[in-house]
């Protein structure tokens, strides 16, 4: 299949009302002033119209509520918008939730991805599938995963993302379909759902509430600012080679404990709020990616240093309480929260 034009003029972005999706949408509309973009989002607990406020080039953006796992929803969006390319960010992403209920992850991350693959193949469109470093599983040997490293997911979330990746690679191999896969390390930045580590700990720290950390807190993650990730996705959309997997990383691992300590410093909170709780089942100790090929072939590199970025990020959550209230309407139902509540209840005198 021919290489797509360097500048698609009509781009449909699934999951663009979410954290990474809305950051990508902002960069898309800013970087390409003549692009028309459609947000295609089911507006589940993780997608919110508030994330689409104050978009640059808002007059070039349209919104369509729809479910990637519903073929009719996808077909109508394609017919009405006539996209030239699709960036697929719609996904169930929280490991804690996948432990509590795997079904939505199978539906969205596996079936939904196949629905989009079929629609894009019929229409002859490029599909950029946004995946995760978690598909490689625990890298406790310290060797960074390359794009050809075997997939060994440790939890339901990662397993469903790996399944979507394999479906995309099968479509490329079998049909010559124009598919590009990206895998990224942990993201942080504004507009992340406040059940994830950094916003959750930021809000708890400001409120003087306990900061529960799984196990010893020495699990290592590599944190990339969401705007750097979004820039990488733009490069993959414009210049990525069909059938390739591209990695985006900051190449600086930090323990969860170090991250929470940095949040305490930024929020002016006492580190004595940190409490260690029972570890999550199947919790991987280390994720690490080799992104040398991406940096070379897409001319990409992260620009935001963690020390400055984490301070700005914590400040954003503390300065936007209305946004936090709006997006946390159904409560923070993570495994971590449930774990902590159960422990507190068990320690109360009867």
Structure notes:
With 350 residues, this protein is α/β, with parallel strands linked by helices. It has a domain at 10-191 and 222-251 and 284-304: NAD(P)-binding Rossmann-like Domain (Rossmann fold, 3-Layer(aba) Sandwich), CATH 3.40.50. It contains 12 helices and 12 strands. The protein has helices at residues 19-31, 71-81, 95-100, 103-123, 156-175, 197-207, 226-239, 256-267, 292-297, 306-319, 321-327, 335-347; strands spanning 10-14, 36-41, 61-65, 85-88, 126-132, 179-184, 186-188, 211-214, 220-225, 245-248, 253-255, 274-277. The strands form 3 sheets. A 7-stranded parallel beta sheet has the order 3-2-1-4-5-6-10, with helices on both faces. The chain has a 3-stranded mixed beta sheet with strand order 7-9-11. Strands 8-12 form a two-stranded parallel ribbon. Helix 6 (197-207) packs across helix 10 (306-319). The longest helix has 21 residues, at 103-123. It is globular and about 55 Å long. The mean pLDDT is 92.
Strand order of the largest sheet: 3-2-1-4-5-6-10
Helix content: 40-55%
Parts with pLDDT < 50 across at least 5 consecutive residues:
none
Strand % is: 15-25%
CATH class of the domain at 10-191 and 222-251 and 284-304: Alpha Beta
Quick check: average pLDDT?
Answer: 92
CATH architecture of the domain at 10-191 and 222-251 and 284-304: 3-Layer(aba) Sandwich
CATH topology of the domain at 10-191 and 222-251 and 284-304: Rossmann fold
Query: Measured on Cα atoms, how large is the radius of gyration?
Result: 20 Å
- Class from helix and strand fractions: alpha/beta
